[in-house]
Amino acid sequence: MTTWILRHPAGTGFRVGVKDLIDVAGEPTTAACRAVAATATPAPADAPCLAGLRAAIARGEACYAGKTNLHELAYGITGVNAAFGTPVNPLDARRVPGGSSSGAAVAVATREADVAYGSDTGGSIRIPAACCGVAGLKTTHGRVPLAGVRPLAPGFDTVGPMARDVAGLIAGMALLEPGFVPGEAPEQIRVGRVPVVAEESWETAVDAALVAAGWDVAPATLPDLDTILAAAMTLLDAETWLSDGDLLRKAPELIGDDVRDRLRKASSVGADAVTTARVTQKAWRRAIDEHWERFDVLAFPTLLADPPLLEDAGRMPQIRGLNAAVNLAGLPAVALPVPKRAGGLPASIQLVGPAGDEERLLAIAGVLEVVVAQAGL
Prior knowledge:
Strand order of the largest sheet: 1-3-2-4-6-5-10-11-9-7-8
Distance between the termini: 34 Å
Strand content: 5-15%
Low-confidence stretches: none
Shape: globular
Oligomer: single chain
C-alpha cells in the first residue's frame, strides 16, 4: 500500500490518482506527514483543479482511484518516506522512486492508474517520472489553479499530470483544463541542446533521440547554471519555511529526519539572500526568454544519472539536474523516457517550452515519442 495513502475500488473509465497534497472532498489531506495528519480533517470541497475530473466521473468517463503517497510535505526528491512508506520503484525495487510525487509515478508505471496528478515545485513531477520510466508534465506556473492544494513554495508550486505516455499526459491535461487539446508541432523543430555534465549513458540516450527525430539541434548557451540553481533553492527554501515552519515549531517529533533537517536549514535563509536571489531570477527569466526567437524547445537530460540505490538516497541532490532552474523561470516542461543503447534502466529527456505553450510542447513531445519507438533505440 506504499503507493497509496488512500485507495478506492476500481470504477468506470479512466483511472486517476491524486497526490495527497490536493484536497478531495470528504478526505483528509495529509501531505504524507504525521504532523499534518494528526490534525487533518476531511476537506469540505474538492480543489478547483479537480472540477474536470468530477465532471468526467459524472459522465462515466473517469474514476477517482485514490490519494497517492509522496515525499513528506513534498519537500524532498528521493520519495523515501519512513512514516508512510516508500513507494517501490517498478524498474528496480532497490532504487529510490524519486520525489516528491513518488506515489503518482509508481501508480501509473504499475498501471494502477492511467493518470496521476502530481505537484512540481523543484522537479517533483519530472524527477520521479525519470526514476520510474514514465512521462510527466510540469505546467507553466499559474496555469493550473492552486486553491485547495497544500502549499510548499507558492512562487514555484505547480500541478500537472503523470502518465505512461504523451497521450496520457494530454488526457490528464484535458481533465485539469477541460477543452485542452494539443497544438501542432512545427514542421522543422528547432532544439536548443543545453550542455550539462551527466553520465555518458544519459547524454548519449538524449542525443540519440534527438538525432533519430532529425530535428534542427544547436547548442543553447545559458548563464551560470550553478548560480541559477542556488537562487532557485534559496527562494524555494525561504518560501517553504513560511509554509511549513509552524510544523517544526509545534511538532518536530512528528516530522521525518530529512525534512526536519531541511526545514531547520530553511529557517536560516535571510532577507539579503532572498533579495539577491530575486535579482538572479529576473535576469534568468530574461536570458531564457531570449532563446524562444531561435528555438522551439530546450532539451537536456532530466537527471544526471540513474536513480541511486535506497541506501544511497542522499546522493539524489547531486543528480537532480536543471529541474529547479525550470521552476525558477516558471516554464512548462515535459519529461519522457528514452532508452539507452546498452540497455538497462531508461534515461529521460526533458523538453522545455515558452510559458503557456503546453499545447505545442506536448505535440512536440508526441512526435519524439513516436520517433523513438520507431527507431528502436
